[in-house]
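Internal tracking record. Fields below are filled automatically when a chain is submitted to the structure queue. Please do not edit lines marked as system-generated. If the sequence contains nonstandard residues, flag them in the REMARKS field before resubmitting.
Queue: standard
Priority: normal
Entity type: single polypeptide chain
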Amino acid sequence: MATVEPNGLTARLRRFVGNEQIRVACLAVFVGGLGGGAGIAFREAIGLIQYLFFGFSDERFHSNAEEVPFWIILLAPAVGGLIVGLIVHYLMPDRRPQGVADVMEASAFRRGRMSRRMGIGGFVVSAITIGSGASAGREGPVVHFAAFLSTLVSRGFGLDPEFRRILLGCAVAAGVASSFNAPIAGVFFALEVVIGSYALANFAPVVFASVTGTIVSRSYFGDFPAFIIPHHEIASFWEFPAFAILGCLSAAVAMALVWSVKIVRTAHEKIKIPPMLRPAAGGLLVGAIGIFFPEVMGVGYEATDEALNELLPLYMLVLLIVTKTAATAITLGSGFGGGIFSPSLFLGAMLGGAFGLIATEFLPHLSSGHGAYTLVGMGAVAGAVLGAPISTFFIVYELTREPALTIAVMIATVIATQIFTALYQRSFFHWQLAERGINLMGSRESRIIRQTNVQAVMEQDYVTIQPNALLPEMRDKLTQTRYSEIFVTDEEARLVGTIMLADLGKHAFTHDRDKDLRAIDVCRRSPPVATVDMDLEEAMNLLEDCNEEHIAVVAGPDDPRLMGVLHEHDVMARYHQCIIETRREEAI
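SYSTEM-GENERATED OUTPUT FOLLOWS
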């Protein structure tokens, strides 16, 4: 019986369905739905825990807190901190909370992999942190949990590392979009902060995921901006110098926030409080601040909204900058979970409002109103802290749906970000990673190179000789190696030195010292060496500094056992391969 060949349309449809990029796009939509669900689940979890601690589950925290006894305000963050400390100590990887920095690390170094303890534990710890009244943001935990869910999908479908990384970015986009009701911001945050590339292969699935996450979130919470504010217009172009000054001040506030987190961590170490009890101790301090300034507890959106609507006096704006910085630094520096985005928006709003009040007082006819400066300050401080100015432009716009001040937000945010980067770090997340000895700076090729260690490219084509070997044996050994260098090792294979033809000097071609000149007498006793766990970027710098084409590889800094030899051309070949792979991805 003759087989019927599929017609042209059917064949094209089969090829279309079987296309790998189409499958990834479908998975991106699925992951986007999971990201939107993660945002809903996290907000509901915060509300539940907040109800258990305070008797209400409402984002308008400080208005409801007026009816709560002061001792509950004082003790709730401490009790939450005690629970967080126990969970982190006994269940979390590396005994620390998880956040956006860990998603960035997973994207750059762990091939898009995240463990179940990282995902579920991070969700629970952050929900307890915010629900108990500690000062932190909810957006980072949503991003982290959504990213974790994407790794489950990638693992289930057996995706390769590159597609796992793309799906991780899809989850991040959906998480941001669902948290802020901001699909455009979700796309650019994922590409700018996590993936680090705007290639079409990354862009299309991330857009699908972000839109899907937004649809899921809107279907549950409704289509509303996070803040409702009056309409603003720029009164005069003479205001732009004022926006630039606000950008400089925003950089200072952003640096003060990150610096304060570090100070709190250092203080805990000096006082020698056990790590398990640090969140409880920090929570008690946050509760003490919250008795007098409940605005700083939790996410803080209510106070941010009041600043945007010009409802707070100057003295309160200034006090809330100080107290929110302290409360957030204590929260994050003590080992609570939670994110940094909402506190950054809060501080930016207070700074912008205070600056705007002063500017309006001196030049009322040139001012757009201090509510406009509040909006600009939000973008500038958040952009500096996140190290993501493009994402911040869109986040502020979609949070407020206020287009008139877009240029002002851009000016202040770029200035704040540049100052923060030049004087401190690329972002708060990069600072967190740097504290753990992880460097994400540089091009993607450089980051890939840093993921590869010397052991992956070293060769075993070396020739060894004993320290007491005589000159004839040295000549013979040198003829056996293709790169004219032999390694002197003792009986336990420990590197003693290296010998090249030039090290033999005039004796290389004479025989008057054949019976008494030993390898130990002519070898270089302290040659440059690499270790097996050294990354290739370090190895490239070492080869350049010592001006060598071949160096010995030893087991470790304190273990001189010879393990192999590293050739410069092998390192450069690997780097070239990384460049080709990256360019191929960006050309898709």
